[in-house]
Structures are given as structure tokens and as C-alpha cells.
Amino acid sequence: MWYAETPVFTMQDDLFGAPPAAPSPHVLAQAASEPIVRRRRTNEVCPAPADAALQALAATIPPRVRIGSSSWSYPGWAGLVWDEGPYSESLLSKEGLHAYSQHPLLRVVGVDRSFYRPLTQDQYARYAAQVPDDFRFVVKAPSHVTDALVRGEDGRGLQPNPAFLDPVLATQDFVAPALAGLGHKVGALVFQLSPLPRHLLHNLPLVLQRMRTLLLAQPPLSPTAPDGVLALEVRDPEWLDPLFMPELAAMLREAGATWCLCLHAKMPRLADQLPLLRKLWPGPMVCRWNLNPLHGAYGYEDAQREYSPYDRIHDVDQDTRELLVRTMAGIAGAGQNVYVTISNKAEGCAPLSVRALAEGLAANPRP
């Protein structure tokens, strides 16, 4: 406060000018009417603006149905999942999960990076801290447990993997840290077996027995993650031979695990995998929709090149959409959990594929 009788402040008036005049009522009124713009931190990823139509659509989806993508680090999703940004892929990888989880339809996400290198409990806990309480994760086991071969940088098998299906490593490097870090937000812990070498494909009962030993050795999920389930995914269609399927189903039932529906061009279509899921009924549904069959069994890079930056649908797979919707509705309607993660390589843009499934569910409700 300024006091004219105080000599010190009179000196300041002389040096720096008179105190500024009070703003006029007009200026104050104009300032009050202007919106306050929050300055974004340089490492912050903001979600796309709230969409009333998406909110209304999300309200129609059964609570047990969780649909999402297989990752979250795509700048091309600007305007769909995050605001216009722009954001780099590296920033989205580190900071984008919170914004992703604010999307009304995205209630699950895949964690694929764990396939290439085991994650720690702290890394999982950081993911869990970024998402709402009802959000769930579908996590892949490390390849040093699920690949029968040690591979070079080009993906070629170099030698047999001595740690293949090692139960102790599966617990130590995967199940235990994921449970401890994600807690009740565990959805499915997926053991995705890489394509088997020929000598093991010709001896699937041996591989099945080793898989049984691994699954039975894992700590129970339900005390920590009541919605959690262990799941087996493969890349060899021989597993679904009708003569072998009953043995496979019996092993999964004994272990309290389930089959992960793998929608990939290397595997039979969804309709041909559902008989195995029926043999496991009642139980949850875990599905990873990975690659459009238009690209063939080895078309991952082709899909990546054609679909990038993943901002729109390129190739609608209508048959898969319709059968997924019917299957999800039936399983959730019977009180079982449903986890479906979708890759951009399925149709071109995972968030828009999620929306298409949600619209299908809304249009065909099933009690």
C-alpha cells in the first residue's frame, strides 16, 4: 500500500514513476469474461476433448466388456485419443497412457513391450497409477520364456532356448512382478508361444505337458486380481487340430487358464477357434485382434507401411466384427469377463475399430 506521507515511497515514486492507476471497470469485466487457458507442461499428454456421443455409447456397453488397443504410442491418434498436440511417439509411450485411459471406450490396453524385455514391479506400478480403478491390462510374457528358440536381430532362430517354458522364470520375470505392480488391474497374463520349430510341432503333447507344468506352478491370481486370468496364445494352427483340441482344453481347465483367441493371418479365423472356447465354458474371453488376413501370414510390415499413421480405417473386416460382437455379448451376458485388444494392423486404426465393436454391441444388446 502506498502512503504519500512516507518519504521512502515518495523517493520510489520519483525513481520509478507513480503507482499504476487502478484498471477501469470495463477492463475488469472484459478480463473476467475471458476463459482461463491452462498452460500445458512440456511432458503432458492431454486427452481429446470430451465427446458426448462417445460418452453415451460407452454407457451402453456391458460392464464386463473391456475393449482397447494393443498399445498407446501413436501420434496419428491425434483428435481421436489425444488432443491435436502434436506429440512424439516417445512422449506418448512414456506419458500417453493416462490420456488413453480417459477415452470413454478404452477400458483395457495391451502391454506388448514386456515380450521383448521383462518389466519390473515398479514399471507395472507406474502403469497402474495412470489409469482408473476399473481399467485392466492384457500383458504378454517375455519371449525368453515363450520362444523355443534364441533368435538373432533378424528374427531367425539361432539355437534352442534352454529357458523355454521354465516355470521359475515365468513366475520371477512375469507373473509375480505383474501381479505386484498392477494389482487388481490385471486382466489377462498371456503366454504367447512363438512359432515352434518343426521337431516340437511334431511333438505337441510334450510341449503341452511343459505348458501344464508352467501354468500350475504360477501363484493364484484371484487373491490379488479377482478379474485376472492366465491365457495361452499360439502362432501354429496345429494346436487347433480337432484330434488334439480335447487334450489342450483339458490342460487349460486343469490349470484354471484360458485360450487367447489370436486373430492373426497365421491362425485359423475366429469361427474356427471358438470350438475350443466352448470346451472351456464357462469362462472369460481373451482376444487379441492382431492382423488383417488380407496381408497374409507374414504381412505385418506390409500392414504397417500401408496403414501408418493409423488415423483411419483402411480395410474393414466385417466378418470378424460381427462374430466378435455376438461372442462378446453372449459371454458377458452370462456373467463372464471379456478382454479384447486390437492392433492398428487389424483394420488401420485401433480406436476406430474399438468404436465399431462398441456400436455393434449397442445395436445388438443381449441380456
From TrEMBL:
<dbReference type="InterPro" id="IPR002763">
    <property type="entry name" value="DUF72"/>
</dbReference>
<dbReference type="Pfam" id="PF01904">
    <property type="entry name" value="DUF72"/>
</dbReference>
<protein>
    <submittedName>
        <fullName>Uncharacterized protein YecE (DUF72 family)</fullName>
    </submittedName>
</protein>
<dbReference type="InterPro" id="IPR036520">
    <property type="entry name" value="UPF0759_sf"/>
</dbReference>
